[in-house]
Structure formats: structure tokens, C-alpha cells
Structure to design on (480 residues):
């Protein structure tokens, strides 16, 4: 995948497992977000295949792609809630567009999802009237309202305090197991990596550089991964103590 | 290309109908206040200026009403009002879509499998094309009202003479109004499509949203002026 003369991604291959939180990590500018945009079809890769349960997404026709997309839940970095809709309307939106449910059924489902992410009594507030952490949780509720098969999260805890970030991470992991979804989390937050990284792919200079999990990432001898993981003083100290 | 990709079957008709009504309210009904205010004042000013300029004894008083009518129907209401609406509605559309783009709301819709151009832009264009002529009729009515208030309030011309001037050449009036409404419809299309284009293809952050908004107004205004010239040539000559 290139933009002009700059090749952003090349030789990337990975299998994201169902029921697991699959993490894509790497430094800023390493190509993580471009990879996600390719996977969800916002960018078209120049070469290669993106397979959803064996079906080649990049070769699909619009109609087939649309069908896959209704099975995708996406959590954006900033939440991407619709400003003009209230919390409950945001969560109900996919149901309104793609189901024939009655208003009461939609309300029940949306309320269930909101309760699941611990948002209560905020139904009539607008996104600008709730905190960043709440916005993320509402966005998760919207992402799972259609019971998706795939959940994609782009830096889900950016801009959140450590406690809220862990809450969001754990929520993603719980929901992944509950709905048996294939979850892909793009992050460069080491707390997330150590908390929920069932499978981890480390991207370096646009390439699939290392694969492992939250246990093996701590002990890997790979220099680039080590530089990334132990970039903070706290983790460096942790490593020294472990040694 | 943007317009072509809008012509798809709506995902759900009821949702699109609700969006259309919403946009009619947003683009048309919510603009009525400023339109009425400006039209009334401009109508009054046109009458006062015409009355003071046409001062010769041999020119009948109803000429002032006639001049006001011609100015309001032919230019002020369809063209000048559209330029004002390009500022209000155009910047609103571009900044709304632009901020949706930079905050990834459009991407969110896209991933859900929604044709974002059809969902976001089509209702705006259809709503504007339907509601702008109505807004322009309001503008004409309040322009005449403003003129009548001026003739009545200042005593520059007798009120009845103003009304005679307004009603003169009745057969021509219908064609003039049709011409004005054709212009309003074309301008509505220009404002919404140009502004939507600038908003939809915004990239970057808040600064770029501002730039898109400015570009939307500038390009819409220039295109309105060009279309005005073209339509006048085609329809009046």
C-alpha cells in the first residue's frame, strides 16, 4: 500500500483469531491505521488479499462488501459518535438503518447494550455533553448493537486516564469473548498490550516484524520490539528487576 | 462523480424521508427569519431610493412601485437572497460535513455499509431545491411589504400608487415569478452541491474545516453570479 512514492505497508500477513483480542502495535507512522483502513475497506490495497472467513474482501463487489460491513463493529479513536444524535439515537442508528425492528425493540436492544457498557440514565444527552470515556463506551455500545462478527478498535484508549483506559480494554476483551467476535485492536499503549494482548502483531516500517502474545512480548530478544516495549522508564525498571 | 454516486437505492426509505424533512427544516425554515428581516428592510430601502431618484413631475408615482417590484422579483429575492443563503446555508453545510469528516463520523457511516454521499448529501440537495423557491416567495412578499411600509411611513409616494405599481403588467408578473423561481432552484442546487463537495472532501483538522467553509461560500457565490448571467440570457432575452 503506497501513497504517492511512499510505501506505507508491504509484506504484511497475519491471521486474526475469533474470540481473541488481536493487537496490532507499532510506533506512530508505522502503518497501523493504514492497515486497519485497508482491512475495513476504506483504502484499497494495491496487492494482496484481505480474507473474511475465507472470502476475499478486496475482490468483492459493492453489494457483497456491504453485507460484510454490516457484520463489522468499529470503534474509532475519537469515538466518532454522531454529534446531531443523542446517546440512545447513536446506539439505535445501525438498527434503524439495517433492521426491521420496531421502535420498542430497537430501544430495548440499545438500552441493553448501553447497560452492558455501564452507561445508564444518559440516553437523552448528546455526545458533547458526556465525558471522553463515556463517549468511548457509547461508541462500543453502538459497535456491538448489531451483534457483529468482527470488532475493530482504533486506539481505543487514547486520550483516556489510565483507569478508564483499563476499563475500556477489559470491556473490549469481555465483549470479544461474550460475542465470540474477531477483535482487532490498533494501539501503541503498553498497558493494553499487557492487559488484553491474546495475539500481537508488531509492525515496523510498514512490515509485519514480530508476532506473539502478551507473555512472549516481555521476553522476546527482538531489538525493535524491545525498544518499543521498554521505551518507558517504568517498564525499563520492571525489566531490570525481572533480570 | 460525487453527484453520480448519490443515485443509489436508499438503504431505508423511512430514514431518508426523515432526513429530508430535517434538512428542509434546517436549510429552509430556519433561514426564514433572516430572509424576512433582510427582505423587508431591502424592500423599504428600494422604495425610498426609487422615490427620491424618480423625482420628476412627469413620471407617475406608481413607477416607484413598479421599480420596486422589478428589482425585488428579478434580482433581489432570487439572486441577492441566494448569495446571502450561500453564506448562511453553504458555510453551515461545509462545516457540518467537514467536521463529520475530520472526526471520522463519515468513516463510521461508511464502515456500517451506508452510502454516505446518498445519506448525507442527497437529502440536502433535494431539500434545498424544494424549499428555496418557497423561501424566495417569502422574500418577495416581505420585500413588497417592506416597500409598502416605507411608502406608508415616509409619505414619499401615496400608498395606493405604490400598490398600483406593484400590480402593474399583471401578465408579465407571472413569467417574472416563474423566472425568479427557476433561478432560485438552480441556485439552491449550486449552493448545496458545491458546499457539500467542499465539506465532504475536507481532510485535516479544524483549520481545514474553516477553509472548506470559506471555499464553499466563495465558489457558490461565483457560480451563482455566472449562472445568473447565463439564466438571464437564456430566459429573458
Amino acid at each position: 500500500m503506497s501513497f504517492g512514492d511512499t510505501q506505507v505497508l508491504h509484506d504484511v500477513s497475519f491471521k486474526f483469531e475469533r474470540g481473541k483480542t488481536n493487537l496490532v502495535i507499532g510506533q506512530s507512522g508505522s502503518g497501523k491505521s493504514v492497515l486497519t483502513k485497508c482491512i475495513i475497506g476504506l483504502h484499497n490495497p494495491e496487492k494482496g488479499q484481505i480474507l473474511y472467513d475465507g472470502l476475499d474482501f478486496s475482490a468483492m463487489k459493492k453489494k457483497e462488501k456491504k453485507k460484510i460491513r454490516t457484520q463489522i463493529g468499529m470503534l474509532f479513536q475519537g469515538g466518532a459518535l454522531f454529534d446531531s444524535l443523542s446517546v440512545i439515537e447513536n446506539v439505535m442508528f445501525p438498527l434503524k438503518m439495517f433492521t426491521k425492528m420496531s421502535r420498542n425493540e430497537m430501544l430495548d436492544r440499545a438500552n441493553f447494550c448501553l447497560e452492558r457498557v455501564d452507561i445508564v440514565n444518559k440516553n437523552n444527552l448528546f455526545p458533547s455533553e458526556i465525558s471522553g470515556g463515556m463517549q468511548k463506551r457509547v461508541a462500543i455500545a453502538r459497535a456491538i448493537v448489531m451483534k457483529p462478527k468482527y470488532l475493530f478498535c482504533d486506539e481505543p484508549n487514547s486520550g483516556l486516564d489510565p483507569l478508564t483506559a483499563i476499563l475500556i480494554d477489559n470491556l473490549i476483551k469481555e465483549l470479544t469473548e461474550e460475542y465470540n467476535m474477531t477483535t482487532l485492536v490498533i494501539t501503541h499503549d503498553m498497558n493494553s498490550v499487557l492487559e488484553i494482548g491474546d495475539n500481537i502483531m508488531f509492525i515496523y516500517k510498514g512490515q509485519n516484524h514480530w508476532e506473539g502474545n502478551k507473555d512472549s512480548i516481555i521476553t522476546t530478544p527482538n531489538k525493535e520490539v524491545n525498544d518499543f516495549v521498554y521505551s518507558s522508564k517504568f517498564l525499563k525498571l520492571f525489566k531490570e528487576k525481572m533480570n | 462523480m460525487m453527484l453520480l454516486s448519490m443515485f443509489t437505492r436508499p438503504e431505508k426509505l423511512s430514514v431518508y424521508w426523515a432526513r429530508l424533512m430535517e434538512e428542509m427544516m434546517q436549510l429552509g425554515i430556519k433561514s426564514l427569519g433572516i430572509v424576512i428581516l433582510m427582505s423587508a428592510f431591502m424592500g423599504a430601502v428600494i422604495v425610498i431610493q426609487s422615490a427620491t431618484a424618480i423625482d420628476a413631475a412627469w413620471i407617475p408615482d406608481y413607477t416607484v412601485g413598479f421599480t420596486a417590484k422589478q428589482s425585488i422579483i428579478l434580482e433581489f429575492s432570487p439572486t441577492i437572497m441566494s448569495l446571502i443563503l450561500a453564506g448562511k446555508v453553504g458555510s453551515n453545510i461545509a462545516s457540518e460535513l467537514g467536521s463529520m469528516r475530520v472526526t471520522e463520523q463519515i468513516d463510521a457511516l461508511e464502515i456500517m455499509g451506508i452510502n454516505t454521499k446518498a445519506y448525507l448529501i442527497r437529502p440536502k440537495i433535494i431539500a434545498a431545491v424544494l424549499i428555496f423557491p418557497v423561501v424566495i416567495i417569502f422574500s418577495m412578499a416581505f420585500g413588497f411589504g417592506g416597500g409598502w411600509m416605507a411608502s406608508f411611513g415616509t409619505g414619499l409616494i401615496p400608498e395606493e400608487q405604490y400598490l398600483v405599481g406593484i400590480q402593474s403588467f399583471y401578465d408579465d408578473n407571472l413569467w417574472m415569478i416563474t423566472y425568479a423561481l427557476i433561478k432560485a432552484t438552480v441556485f439552491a442546487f449550486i449552493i448545496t452541491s458545491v458546499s457539500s463537495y467542499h465539506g465532504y472532501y475536507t481532510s485535516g483538522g479544524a483549520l481545514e474545516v474553516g477553509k472548506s467553509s470559506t471555499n464553499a461560500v466563495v465558489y457558490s457565490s461565483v457560480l451563482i453570479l455566472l449562472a445568473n448571467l447565463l439564466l438571464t440570457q437564456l430566459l429573458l432575452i
Notes: Chain B has one domain: 21-236.
